[in-house]
Each structure stands twice: as structure tokens, then as C-alpha cells.
TrEMBL record:
Gene that encodes it: sufC
UniProt keyword terms in alphabetical order: ATP-binding, Nucleotide-binding
GO MF term set: ATP binding
Lineage per the UniProt record: Bacteria, Pseudomonadati, Pseudomonadota, Gammaproteobacteria, Alteromonadales
Transmembrane stretches, start-end: none
ATPase AAA-type core domain residues: 23-352
Name recorded for this polypeptide: ATP-binding protein
Entry-linked InterPro entries: ATPase_AAA_core (IPR003959), P-loop_NTPase (IPR027417), RecF-like (IPR014555)
PANTHER family, per database record: DNA REPLICATION AND REPAIR PROTEIN RECF, SLR1056 PROTEIN
Length: 392
């Protein structure tokens, strides 16, 4: 389970440290940084997929992702006595992302290369530093792998020789240790962490327009994990029926749509769902369902996966759902959180209120002050300990 997420210098998240629990609910007014927090977590996941540099390019480049305010915010700026103006830079500009978990923790720092007039790729982000340590507290003695620029050192416990070993000297600037160090003998913790992060699941706005992949009949293959665009909905539901929590699925359907049932049909090699509602003589297929019903079925299939990941992230799952469905959605999310760590970003009051009823729900309320995202109610005592240690 992740215990802390730390972000520095990413858009409105100038310096944010969040405590995470089993079920996390991120809320806050428009523009306060909910999506930025979501995107920061996604960037971390993309690091393990080997795609962090591309992901940053798609966001408009590293320079545009950097916090656009001054490096330091003085007391005077906060009280309005002094103007907001650039402060003299004391540290190189870095975007930093990290998480702590009970098992292993990780951080990455990205920056821009030194100016070089011989290349047109002078704005390509570079990975300046990465570190993996054991447990959730960074202590020099708990660091297992430390990368600085092109050089990676490891002090894996299982190695016979004590002390640091240089295990890579020529890392490409854009490649993470997760894509480069894939030797299960020398760095098993890198592989372990990589595989855990790669399994994190992000569901962000399922399409439900008439051409949406979820509306089409599909070739059936066993599908314990619903694709993020929902293209394999019928297979995922059938897989839950065969090897997962069939009763839980049926209960979730009738909780949201009293009297309704879902079946999966096989026709000419293709699978399609049938949604039987009270009052109808035949079940409706995926192409006939309302946007809200289709999205809700997608959420059930995602959340009741027979292969829960370490972390499941839902970005504004309320989109295009009827408000009356939101209490049932909250119950479904709470149930899923007993199988995996869940992170929900929402600004729908009914969903927020219903989730808050659950004891295990950890509310993370965001607020923005002078352009910076803060966590409401967080003070020195409740801010999780995290430091972007410079020296191992
Ligand atoms: N590079 C940046 N530096 C500082 N603030 C930024 C940067 N990029 C975007 N923002 C701010 O982030 C806010 C958007 O946050 P977002 O996470 O999308 O909000 P929401 O909570 O509505 O999802 C915008 O109001 C914008 O001011
Ligand atoms: Mg948003």
C-alpha cells in the first residue's frame, strides 16, 4: 500500500505531500489541482512503463509542467505586502515525484539539459536522479539503488559484497532505471517495484458515445482486467462470472438498477452484453444502453476485477452518471477498497458525501493559495515526513 505521495514543482503542486490510506478521496473546487495530482501519479506510473519523457512531451514539455510561480514564496507575498516576483534561484529547476510504501519507496527528479546549440532536442527532459529505498522512510542506510545522471549504484542486501556497486555507467538521459535495469539477479527490487507500478490501474472517463469501443460486440478472451477504454467489457463481465465474484457483480447491478440483470451472449464468435430491465421484453445490448448505464457497468467491471492491482485510480467517475446512482457507486468503491488501494478524484457532492460515510474513507481536500495547491487542514504535525534527500 502507498503511504505517501510527494510532488514538487509540478504545475500548481509546488510542494505537496499527501498521506494515503486504503480508500482516498480527492476533492476541491475547480482549478485547485485535483487533475494535477492525478496527472502526477500517472506520470509516476508512466516512469515504470518507460514513457515518462514522452508523457511530459504530450503535456507540452517539461518547461510548461514546472510550477510557474516563484521558487520561494515569502511571508510578505502570502500577506500581500510584497509583490509576487521571481526570487533568485537557489537550486536547479527540478520536477520531483515520489511515493513511499510499506515495502519499497521511489523518487525521480527530472530537469532540463544544459544549453547546447548543436541540437534541436535541447528541451528533452532528462532524468537527473532516481532512488529506491526499503520501507517508507528515506534514510541513507535504507537506499538500495541510487541513480545520478548516467551512473547507477546499487547496494542490494542480497549481494555478497558489502557497500555500493556501480551497476550502470551509461544510462540514457531519458531512460528510467525501470526500463534499463531488468536483471532479476542483481536488482530484484527494481523489477518487483516496476511490476507493481505497471499494474496500477487508471480509469479516466470511459467513452460512451455511439462509436465507443464498449458498445461494440467483441471477440471473447478471458479478461481479468478491463481495458482502460472499456473495449472488452463483455469479456471482463464474463470473466467475473466465471472466475470472479459473480454474486458481488449481480448485487452491484441490482443496487444501482433495482430489478435489472446483466448477461453475456455469444453470437457468431463475438460477445455482447444483455441488460434486462423491468418492463422490457428483451435485454438491451451495449449499443442500446444509455451513457450512464453503460458507464456504470464499466465501473462495476473495473472495480470488481478478479485480479485487483495494488492501486486503482478513478478520475471523476461521476461523469455522466445520474446523481441517484452515486450512493450505489460509493458502496461499490468502498467494496473495491477492501481488495485494493483505491484513489478517487471527484467533485460530485453526492458521491463525496456517500463515500465520506465510510469509516475507511480518507478525505484529501485541496485548496489553492497564490496559485499553489495545498491540502486543507494539513499542518506540520499532519504533513507526512518526506525529504528529497540530496545525498545517499
Ligand atoms: N505550470 C503551472 N504552474 C502553476 N500552476 C499551473 C500550471 N499549469 C496549470 N496550473 C494551474 O493548475 C490549475 C488546474 O488544476 P487542475 O488540476 O486541472 O484543477 P481541477 O482541480 O479542476 O482538476 C489551473 O488553475 C492552473 O492555474
Ligand atoms: Mg480536473
Amino acid at each position: 500500500m502507498l503511504t505517501t505521495l510527494a510532488i514538487s514543482n509540478y504545475r500548481s503542486l509546488r510542494e505537496v505531500k499527501v498521506t494515503l490510506k486504503q480508500l482516498n478521496l480527492v476533492t476541491g473546487a475547480n482549478g485547485c489541482g485535483k487533475s494535477n495530482l492525478y496527472k502526477a501519479l500517472r506520470l509516476l506510473a508512466q516512469t515504470a512503463q518507460g514513457g515518462v519523457v514522452n508523457a511530459l512531451a504530450q503535456e507540452g514539455g517539461l518547461e510548461s509542467c514546472f510550477w510557474a510561480g516563484p521558487e520561494n514564496i515569502t511571508k510578505g507575498m502570502l500577506t500581500g505586502e510584497t509583490a509576487i516576483e521571481p526570487t533568485v534561484r537557489q537550486q536547479p529547476k527540478r520536477l520531483k515525484l515520489g511515493f513511499a510504501s510499506e515495502e519499497y519507496s521511489y523518487l525521480i527528479e527530472l530537469g532540463l539539459p544544459k544549453p547546447d546549440s548543436t541540437t534541436l532536442f535541447g528541451l528533452d527532459p532528462q532524468i537527473k536522479r532516481e532512488a529506491i529505498w526499503v520501507g517508507n522512510k528515506y534514510r541513507p542506510a535504507s537506499v538500495l539503488v541510487e541513480r545520478r545522471g548516467p551512473v547507477v549504484k546499487s547496494r542490494a542486501e542480497h549481494q555478497k559484497q558489502a557497500g555500493w556497486q556501480t551497476i550502470g555507467q551509461h544510462m540514457q538521459h531519458g531512460d528510467s532505471i525501470f526500463s534499463e535495469l531488468a536483471d532479476p539477479e542483481r536488482t530484484p527490487e527494481v523489477i518487483h517495484l516496476r511490476d507493481t507500478i505497471r499494474a496500477w490501474r487508471f480509469y479516466d472517463h470511459f467513452r460512451s458515445d455511439s462509436d465507443a469501443p464498449a458498445r461494440k460486440p467483441q471477440l471473447g478472451t478471458r479478461t481479468p482486467v478491463l481495458h482502460h477504454d472499456g473495449r472488452d467489457l463483455a469479456s471482463a463481465i464474463q470473466t467475473i462470472f466465471e472466475i470472479g465474484d459473480r454474486d458481488g457483480f449481480n448485487d452491484a447491478v441490482s443496487d444501482a438498477f433495482p430489478g435489472a440483470t446483466v448477461t453475456v451472449h455469444y453470437n457468431a464468435g463475438l460477445l455482447n452484453i444483455g441488460f434486462q430491465q423491468e418492463g422490457l421484453l428483451r435485454p438491451l445490448s451495449a449499443s442500446e444502453l444509455s451513457d450512464g448505464t453503460l458507464r456504470y457497468l464499466l465501473l462495476i467491471a473495473a472495480l470488481l476485477t478478479p485480479r485487483p492491482p495494488a492501486l486503482m485510480v478513478l478520475n471523476e467517475p461521476e461523469t455522466s452518471l445520474h446523481p441517484d446512482l452515486l450512493p450505489a457507486l460509493a458502496r461499490l468503491i468502498a467494496k473495491a477498497s477492501s481488495l485494493c488501494q483505491v484513489w478517487v478524484v471527484s467533485h460530485a457532492n453526492r458521491l463525496i458525501n456517500a463515500l465520506n460515510e465510510f469509516e475507511q474513507c480518507h478525505l484529501i481536500e485541496l485548496d489553492k493559495q497564490l496559485g499553489q495547491t495545498h491540502i486543507l487542514g494539513q499542518d506540520i504535525l499532519t504533513t507526512p515526513s518526506w525529504n528529497w534527500q540530496q545525498k545517499a
